[in-house]
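Protocol step 4 of 5: obtain the predicted structure for the target chain.
Materials: sequence only (see below). No template structures provided, no constraints applied. The aim of this step is simply to have a reference model before the mutagenesis design in step 5. Sequence pasted as it appears in the construct record:
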Amino acid sequence: MYCPNCGNKKRKNDAYCFQCGTAFNDINPSTNTTIPKLKDISKLSIILIATITLIIFPAILFGGKKTINLDSYLSVSFDGWDGFGKADAEINYEAFIDDYATKIEYTDDYYMTSAHAVDAFVKYMRVDIEQSDGTLSNGDEVYVTWDIDENDLSEIKKYFNYNVKFSDSLKFKVNGLSTPREFDPFENISIACEGMNGMGIARVQGEDNRFNYRIEPKENLSNGQTVIVQLSDSSQYYTANYGLIPIVSEKEYVVENLSVPLDDFDQILNRDLQSIIEDGKSYINDKYFFVDTNGNQEFFCEELDYCGTIFFPPKNYDDNYAITLFKIVGKLTKPGYETNRYQFYHPVLFKTLIQNADGSVNYKRSAYAPKMEHLGAAKIRSLDEESRVEIQYLDGFKTLEDAISYYSDNTSVWHSN
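Step 4 output (structure tokens):
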């Protein structure tokens, strides 16, 4: 017996249909021979067929393998500045391995002795990105494609228990790029000049390590000359790399503080004059500290006084020089011999006197004394044998006037102490 309402078969002793609730008491058994409705049978069949199809068809198509959507592990990041941005496609291998480290397995003996299955699998996960060359602006679009060809897909299908799917091309919109700002590349820049006037050099100082500068000209410079400092790289370089837009690319500077030859000895600072005097005294003491073969000192300098300087201004740029004159009072002595006392004047030569920007003077003391007169042989006779005579030679001048007259010319100037 069947329910006249829904066509469900009546169970024994049921007073009502267990499917729709229709009472069976009102049904005439002789007439209740209805079979299930065709339309309801069709509904059940369609549902059953669809369910079986969803289960069986993928298994037929993919051999029973599950499929991984690679797109879910792909992202794009943007870096740089608006108008000079770069895009980088990133595959989240770490998340992928976390998800499938225990799931992906080999299905072919070829890979069994190789790396772990998931590590071998990710080697197929590659992408290409377009428009990532550092010219991107916010709002631009970039496209990413998976670099997986038919041969890769065939190997994945053959060697692993998972298949893959992915989009032909993925579109991403550029965003988050910072706006470049303007800056003055010469705000904290100056030039340092070194050397002699007319032969000076200049260099940039205070520069930021990110920036490169060049100077034109940079050699054979003179005080008061104008040089140009320029940025070595293009404006685009600073914007692309640092997000900075130079408001100027060059600036003029004036050369100063180059040393000049001293042309007036009166300009020399007292500390530099004292240095010259001490240097001259040291030279004379070294020269006239006579010692014989037995280690006995033969000349004692009792007085050593600075008298003055004959200064010769430069004629050809830096060829100035000065001859300082010192009064020497000393004696020649030796054990067993008579003692002779001498007074004379001795020169010391200083060359290339250069005045720096701060007024200080650099100089070079000559290792040799200027040409001078010989005072002759200084004889010291033996006290016990008149035939024995020791001879020492002293160079210099008997009077200060003799020394000044000997060295002076029409360009020199005498500066007394």
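Step 4 remarks: The mean pLDDT is 83. The two ends are 149 Å apart (CA to CA).
Proceed to step 5.
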